[in-house]
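subagent[fold] <- orchestrator: predict structure for attached chain, return tokens only, no commentary.
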Amino acid sequence: MAVLVLAEHDNASLKDATAKTVTAAAKLGPVTVLVAGEGATGAAEAAAKLAGVEKVLTAEGPAYAHQLAEPVAALIVSLAPKFDAILAPATANGKNIMPRVAAALDVAQISEILSVESADTFTRPIYAGNAIQTVQSSDKIKVITVRTTAFKAAEATGSAPIEKAEGAADPGLSSYVGEELSKSERPELASAKIIVSGGRALASSENFHTYIDPLADAFGAAVGASRAAVDAGYVPNDYQVGQTGKVVAPELYVALGISGAIQHLAGMKDSKVIVAINKDEEAPIFQVADYGLVGDLFKLAPELKAELEAQGVAKKR
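subagent[fold] -> orchestrator:
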């Protein structure tokens, strides 16, 4: 079956989520990657190098420059008759665009798949990840989002041709006004190998940045937060890890002052190694932690940072 993957990119470069989605798509059949953007040559060239990709389609124009959902969805729908399945990573963009595609094609979207069992059968999490559902679709065209933490990134060992795709008419339902982006020298949360997260126990925004940020810098890690910390205003919502935030699976996840509500666990329990620090020895986070330390995070976080520096693991900042 022919498979189309919507690329996640910033025009200049390809996001890691695309490489992981290609891995899932390759289990279904020959993969074509769609790069919709403006001046997105760099992203298209990176997509062409992914193993399993047989062709890259590029659609250039102002309507695609900021990946507005309506024009990108219209583009995908115009290309859909040539494909048996259409996949996108379950990122903010993918979750915004793909339901529109499914509605226009009059098919049921299959969301956040964890595995490809066969050409029409997939698994996906339900009940905040506490159960895995097997879904079989009889739709002629499968519209799918991929939970990228469940798949390894395709390696850059390929060399696929790049072709231009005819852009679809812009439905004119939305227009780009502007955006405010948070800037950070730390790794991107969704793809970071190490994440240090803080919870409501930090008690204030000042404490969050005083205790979490230095430890994250010592690890060279991204910073995350529980929903409780975000709702309390300690950090912006783009820090949120969990069912209603970002789903992550780093090599190391360090949770400080996070009790471990089911919604938070749904977003990080696939991390390879989980370290939890909490003064409540019965906190649910300890049920999934590989290493747990019961104690005062305000004392232990600086001690952990100092030990990292003493062992030469971290640079003093």
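orchestrator: received. Logging for downstream: The CA atoms of residues 11 and 118 lie 33 Å apart. The chain has a mean pLDDT of 93.
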